Amino acid sequence: MSLSAAEQVTPAPPSGGRKGGSRAVKARSQRQIGRWERVGFQGPSLLVLVLIVLFPLIYSVSLSLQSYSLVLPGRTGQWVGLENFQRILHDSDFFHAVGVTVIFVVCAVTLETILGTVVGVMLDRLARFRRAITSLLLLPMITTPLIVGLMFNFAFNAQFGYLTWVMARIGLDPNGGVLNQGPTALAALILVDVWEWFPFIALMVIAGLRALPTSPFEAASIDGASTFQTYRYIMLPMLKPVLVVAVLFRATEAIREFDKVYILTGGGPGSATTVNDLYQYRISFLNWDLSYGAALGLVTFAFVLTLCGVLYRVLTRNEAQL
Amino acid sequence: MSQPRTRAWSVAAGAVTLSVLLASCSSSGSTASGGAASGASAGGSAAAAGWSQECTGKSLSVIAEATANSQIIEKLLPDFKDKTGIDVTIEQAPYDSLVQKAVLDFTGNKGTYDVLSIPYEYLGSFAEKGYLAPIDDMVSTPPTGVGTDFSTADIIPGMWKLSSNWKDHWYGMPSNSAVMMMFFRKDLMENPDEQAAFKAKYGYDLAPAKTWAQYKDIAEFFTRPAGATLAGQTLSEPFYGVTLAGKRHVATVLEWMNYAWGQGGDLFSKDGQPALNSPENITALDYEKALTPFAPPGYTSATWDDTTAALQQGTAAESITWGDTAGAMEDTEASKVVGKMGYTSIPTLAEGTAPQAHLGSWTWSVNKASQNQNCGRLFMAWALSQPVQKELATGGGLPSLTSTFNDPELISSLPYWKQELVSLNESRPRPRIPQWSGISDLVSLELSRVLSGQASAKDALDEGQAKFQELMQGALPVTYQ
């Protein structure tokens, strides 16, 4: 469509009354075609966005203002205003789940960032086997989270798990299995997440380092900077945009952690590892309280949106300070 | 309820049962040969068996929990096609997933599944929401168009009522019913050295526990570290007294309800008010907590799957567990305790009082949105017919017919068979009210907290009671469950 429009317009002669009128018509027609082009190209994607983002969002808002349960006979979608949101204010289980999620996200993402950056820099310096090791690093990442959960479920089995055996041998007796006590269960989940996702940060770091210009490093070398100084004052600040994106990705992913927790602990023991997504799953799909589930989902959405904004600002502020 | 499931033994057993069934079909005069039943041959066999041909050529979509029963039924589907000409696709799913698929199908009014096997705790909810097609006429008058090997009079009345009747309407027929009982290591109880040592320590004879106090004594007695002696053998691995399901999961709630009933407790008071923190329930939870030193490590992440595996592997002496896992204990390919396990009733508070066993029941039900309701009824009737039910029994599943439980051949060949019927007669149901899923979720949280040492029984059940009351708001008192 655009090609044919260009072909029609390009050969037009530069002057002439009647021909000038013809040019104006052609220009108008080009504008019209351009408009249709835009609609034609953007329309489908906008439609898809409306269907998969806007509609569910509006539906969630509407649901959160109703009382709708799939199993309770009396609750068929009566309008209750902000009742579900008021209920959140008194829901200690929700705040507990948010607390667990915050601990999980902060610990997991911090550890992943540190470990990923170190491994990424080391790999970048590696002359041989870099490609092979980088490919191997991909393995945990491309494993389905559900499978990761099942793998570690076996590994952490209190009686027969090989990690339980290893921990007992090195004096870290898990006493009934790491998954059976609140603090150790949460720590285990964080470590599993680190195992799965630090390669992501490492890969981002490798890609970032490859794209850096060499001249600042050469200049630092000539000026007699130590390796640490080069990393601290040259590499890290230049790598910062990449790290910011990587951390943002990981943080938003970790906030909606579900699979591994569901498989490994089911949120227990008690509610020690009940992260926010698992709590909402329980409300919506075990208790079938869809309206309250929708309200919780919207609050989480707002929370994540705010957090992303704050995180982005914090991480991109005062670049020179890094 | 839902049992552990997907096991290699049941697949193998299914293969055997299929061949047995096909043999029995041909011996009953069927003219059909192989699985390629043409309309004519199907009609021929149907005429002999009395099955209606009104649905010939149609297909049914069925969903059931992934259990031994469902696997056996799936293997037998060629027989159903042979008799009725109906093609059936059966989907098997774990408990949570099945309930979710069922609810989504019901609420979408799509009728994707024509027949669903649903857990009876959802019966009240699904019936009152109008998701299920009642089958009152099939119950009030003997149904026509079904085979002579099916009779509604043969279905165990109590089990049928609990699984399928809600407020005087019938919504299906039992598909998979199981009852909790006590499993114990017969070989250890009968060992003279162990008997002598037990008597010396506790002052009474070692025998399968009849009271909760004895149950705990036996648990304590048999808990031994690696290197100790058990029935004359040196243990290479630790041995435990009991199994416990303690994960934040419905399995934990169902097991605890046996302890609670045993102490005289219950979820609701007699006048229908929430009574989670009653003194009896607190005592029962304290009692369960006191059993934890005698359970294999990892009990706080264990469900019925793990307890069954522990028993099968011969690592525990006794257990309050589901009767439909007895087949797994006697499975020569997967179990280390074949012939060593004994089966008896749930203990009581005082000797001589009536045991109370937790009943779990599922019901085949026809989707109200289904376009093939009559065909779905035929499927239910076939699944409850005598030959199919006997195949369930021999394949390690559990039937729902009186005649199958009284079958002399089964009684003599299956060591747990007589006890299954005894326990069924002692059984009582969990609340079948629409709020059950919420109740189960909140109780499992509190039990998990106590068993993992995060809270005392009183504190946890007090907190649970407050949530329970909030959950039941507007639906009290509960006069029908």
Helix and strand topology:
The complex is a heterodimer of chains A (322) and B (481).
Chain A: H1 2-9, H2 17-64, E1 66-68, E2 76-79, H3 83-89, H4 92-125, H5 130-142, H6 145-155, H7 162-169, H8 182-211, H9 215-222, H10 227-255, H11 259-264, H12 276-286, H13 290-316
Antiparallel strand pairs in A: 1-2
Helix pairs in contact in A: 1-2, 2-13, 3-13, 4-8, 4-10, 4-12, 5-8, 8-10, 10-13, 12-13
Chain B: H1 8-27, H2 39-49, E1 59-65, H3 68-84, E2 87-93, H4 95-107, E3 115-119, H5 123-128, H6 136-140, H7 157-164, E4 165-166, E5 169-170, E6 173-185, H8 186-189, H9 192-202, H10 212-222, E7 229-230, E8 233-234, E9 240-242, H11 250-262, H12 279-291, H13 304-312, E10 316-322, H14 326-329, E11 341-344, E12 357-366, H15 373-383, H16 386-394, H17 402-405, H18 408-413, H19 417-425, E13 427-429, H20 436-451, H21 457-471
Parallel strand pairs in B: 1-2, 1-3, 9-10, 12-13
Antiparallel strand pairs in B: 3-12, 4-5, 6-10, 6-11, 6-12, 7-8
